Amino acid sequence: MTTEAQRALPVGDLAAAVDGPVFVPSDAGFGDEVTGFNLAHLPTPAVVVGATGAQDVAAAVRWAARHGLHVAVQATGHGLTSDLDDVLLVSTRRMTDLAVDPVARLARAGAGVRWRAVIDAAAPHGLAPLNGSSSGIGVVGYTTGGGLGPLARRHGFAADHVTRFEIVTADGRVRQVDAASDPDLFWAVRGGRESFGIVTWIEFGLVAQPRFHGGGIFFPGERADRLLHAWRDWAPRLGEDTSTSIALLALPPDPALPPPLQGRFVVHLRFAHLGDAGEGERLLAPMRAIAEPLLDGVAEMPWAGVDAVHMDPTAPMPVWDRGVGLGSLPAEAVDAILTEAGPDSSSPLVLVELRLLGGALARPAAVPNAVAGRDAAFSLYCLGVPAGPEAAVAVPARATALIEAVRPWTAGGLVALAGQAGPDPVVALWDDDDRALLRELKRRYDPAGVLGGPVRA
């Protein structure tokens, strides 16, 4: 969109229709409003609405439709995969209302709420949400994309526990939706993300989980071969109370890291056990015996300490990521991963993770939803930092080569871990029947294609 076209938009009409701020690229504060966690993309929307509630979202969607703009939504920007050129961006970061009902074991979170707020509000009652590996991620985007976290093998996807939500659909209508009021929309949004509307609050179940036994163990990268092969044999034997992943990490020489890890290629074993500590220690013993750790952080922890399992970065950074599901993990698949991303590969990827799925993740939700990936036994996820022209080319190339190397064992995947896969591979994650129904519902709820998201009519 040209600058002249931007000036022709009646932004004053939009500002008069909403309570929150409205920004165009020339405004002070525009950059702060649009910048997300993933700094690989520099959003350049035509207009931004800092929504304060559902009515602001509805007014923004109606205004965009009248003026021929597509609509995108962002809370934290962790899932940012494009520069959002020439759209109206709805920023939901101000929508932070949160309520926890400890008797009903329910929480209701506004579209700008992050998991840390829910964890802290639920913890005094001995309850926990089905949050992910990082408590800094937004609740709504994570949940509508499925939601895979340390409780998942016991309790399933976060989307499986949604009871109700409020959403603004492409016609600018505010709807409160549950399984009884609109079963089709309730099914589609839980897994189809923002394809069918902008969720303004979401209600979901909590589980009784005041503590866990877990954390991470860092091993020398030179032992990657033995560790990954041992993990592929050990992990599938674990019960549903135990979640684990193993990651190849190329760590920077950052003085904020513990000295044994600075500037090293390491193997990071992640472990979360919901049973007692003694059982957790017995389960972990075979992996501990493979190599001498550089750092062992596994301990008994309150659920509020769950970030210690993955130790995901908390500061914004440029990221290019991809992921797939694996139906099996034979020795040949591990060898292929090590060839492409092991300690001798010179790979520019800074993280390559294998995560155990299965358990409750493989079972249908009590109230069916559109979450893809239940047939995968493992996930493979990788990311790099595309900082500079060489890395901007090398990181996607090596990630693509890694994904291609495991193609013989690929089985679908998770929408939330697809990363920069692009719309066609993401839509292919759903089976034929679900994909057809999602497209039918897209035509019903967004016939003009006003909204973004992975599903297209």
From TrEMBL:
Reported cofactor(s): FAD
Claim: Ribonucleoprotein is one of the keywords in the record: no
Alphabetic keyword roster: FAD, Flavoprotein, Oxidoreductase
Annotated ranges, domain FAD-binding PCMH-type: 41-209
Database matches in Pfam families: FAD_binding_4
InterPro entries given in the database record: FAD-bd_PCMH, FAD-bd_PCMH-like_sf, FAD-bd_PCMH_sub1, FAD-bd_PCMH_sub2, FAD-linked_Oxidoreductase, Oxid_FAD_bind_N, Oxy_OxRdtase_FAD_BS
Origin species: Pseudonocardia nematodicida
Family, per entry: Belongs to the oxygen-dependent FAD-linked oxidoreductase family.
Record keyword Flavoprotein present: yes
Protein name: FAD-binding oxidoreductase
SUPFAM superfamilies: FAD-binding/transporter-associated domain-like (SSF56176)
